Amino acid sequence: MKFKISCIQMDIVFGNPIRNYQIATELIEKAMGENPDIIVLPELWTTGYDLTRLNEIADQNAIKTINFLQESAKRHQVHFVGGSVANRIENEVLNTMLIISKDGQPVQHYSKLHLFKLMDEHLYLQARAEKGLFQLENRPFAGVICYDIRFPEWIRAHTSEGAEALFVVAEWPEQRLAHWRALLIARAIENQCYVIACNRSGSDPNNKFAGHSMVIDPWGEVIAEASTNEEILSAEIDVDLVKEIRSQIPVFEDRKPEYYK
Question: Any catalytic annotation for residue 221?
Answer without folding.
Answer: no
